[in-house]
Amino acid sequence: MNLLQAGLRTLFYIAVGVVISVAGAAYFFMNWEPDRDDYPLRGIDVSHHQGEIDWSLVAADDVTFVYMKASEGADFKDGAFARNWAGAGAAGLARGAYHYFSLCQPGRKQAENFLSVLPRDQDMLAPMVDLEFTGNCARRPAVEEVLREISDFTALVEQASGKRIIFYSPRDFYFAYLKDSGLNRGLWARSVWHSPDYADEWTGWQYHDRGTVKGISGTVDLNVLNRDMSLDKLRSR
Fold this sequence. Notes:
- By secondary structure, this protein is an alpha/beta fold.
- It folds into 2 domains: 1-31; 36-236, TIM Barrel, CATH 3.20.20.80.
- It has helices at 3-31, 55-59, 81-90, 107-115, 143-161, 171-178, 231-236; strands at residues 42-46, 65-72, 76-77, 94-100, 128-130, 166-169, 186-190, 204-211, 220-225.
- Strands 1-2-4-5-6-7-8-9 form an 8-stranded mixed β-barrel.
- The longest helix is centred in the first third of the chain and has 29 residues, at 3-31.
- The N and C termini lie far apart (73 Å).
């Protein structure tokens, strides 16, 4: 074997090793999950993006609760909400609804939009408001303005539903607007592949944004409840 052949073989083995390493890392990250003994209550969050869902298969795949998108901004209503709400309920899953909050529209108008589709069901999980920059309008208002609009939204929804709202917020939005805000609502943290480290306390944790669950084509967000939280507590918040 000449030097050129030896060099090519070495490069080949290196390339194979890199491919195997990348594939192994990808497999690990796609399948990583929190310890089931620490976080036994697992759930998903869905919207119309997931398409038709076979809820009986979902319920049989170690899923106990689901949050589903109901509305966004002041006028958008998720077209799959009623179907998802009925299907998840028939499958015996604990259900909650969330609203995607727009930084470009008044909180009161957004609350009215959310309440127009939110079921009057005392057995449902606490309502959630999705507070994040991803997919939002380009405007970045001052902290005082954002907190005022969130407060207006929160007050109206809590008064109508009789339940305290949960704030879903990733790290960047949390530090931009919520930290030390004094709003004092339960936090649903987003932290992919590691436990949340940007808040001392959290109610729920979205740990994966490309998970798979039987009954859903494509990927879906995966969540767990804090070890100190139960579905009954989440209903009564």
